[in-house]
Structures are given as structure tokens and as C-alpha cells.
Request: fold
Amino acid sequence: GAGVSQSPSNKVTEKGKDVELRCDPISGHTALYWYRQSLGQGLEFLIYFQGNSAPDKSGLPSDRFSAERTGGSVSTLTIQRTQQEDSAVYLCASSFKGAGNQPQHFGDGTRLSIL
Amino acid sequence: GENVEQHPSTLSVQEGDSAVIKCTYSDSASNYFPWYKQELGKRPQLIIDIRSNVGEKKDQRIAVTLNKTAKHFSLHITETQPEDSAVYFCAARTGGNKLVFGAGTILRVKS
Reply:
């Protein structure tokens, strides 16, 4: 596609429910990143994929958070047993290669609200 | 790990004036420094980046300078316009592939 696509754009759910957030990177981009942005804050790194493997998961805040990537393309970020502090905008970015200084291009994000 | 500090947190300038945003980083191994502009409710957009083998880079009204010795880099916007109003984020990348972001600067350009 022309850019990084994320869905849904907005998600409202009740505390304790599981949610899945989807990211479709730019075609041909092998590296994919998930970030979290709380209201008025900077971007917090969550996880990085190179192809289907995740060499860096250091930013996942707890074991309720997991992510996978299949076919070297679409990635899904899953949050289990959601808590109110999980409310944030979840941003996905992709780049041409993980190695080297390739620019990361962001999607519009998923705004997650936990009631 | 890497830590990036960004100043100021808010900046108001008169249209036509210059704006400067500064960032410092902690990891001397960091080698790539992008700047993103984020308008309200929109995605961060890359506006300029600099690699560690370069001291300065310009693109029209925007320039970035890098001082590796002091471990700081700055964004300079000249002849500011109302459409420059946004949140600006600096970031640094170390030997891994993740970007560590500053907390952001809210830039307001008053007309």
C-alpha cells in the first residue's frame, strides 16, 4: 500500500477484555515497530520485528502484551485482560531494512480506550 | 540504555521568527537522529534526519545540527509559518534498531 495502515482507528472496550490491533506495513518494508503514545507524551517503544522474528521485545510493559508478524507483512499486537492504564494511541511504523539508518514511517495509530 | 531529553517543552514564536529545539542523548553509540512533526490527531511525520558522520543538514527552512562530542542535536526552523505549529519529537537510535524519543516540544507560531 501507499503507507502504513492500522486498524481499527479507534477501539473502546471494557476493562478485562482482550484486544487485537493490526498493522499493515508499507509493501517491501522488512522492519516493523510498535510504539505507544499516552496523552500528551512521547512515543514509547514496545517491540521490533525484522521479518517474522522479534529481536527486541524489551518495551513490552507486561506479559499481557504480545505481538506477532506473519508472512513478513501484517503484524498484530494483542493486549490481554486490558487495564485502564493501557489506554493510549498505539502506533506502528515500518522501514525498508532494520539494519542501517532507514527512516521509520508511521501509521495513523489505534486510539485505545479502556472503560 | 539510551535516554533522550528534549527542550523546551513548549515554544511560542511570532510568525517569521526562528525556532530552535534542542535534544541531548546519553549513548555515545547512537548514530541516527530523526525529527518528527506531529499535528493534532495525526501520525508523526519525518521532517529531517541526520547521521552521525554529518554535522549539519538543511532542507529549505529546516536544518538540523549534531554535536557528537557534546551529545546533542538541534532542530532549527527559519521564517516560521502558522502551519509549522505542531508537536516536534527528536529521537536517537543506538546499536539496536529502536528509536528512543524525546518527550516532545509544542511549537506555536503566532500570526
About this structure: Chain B has a mean pLDDT of 94.
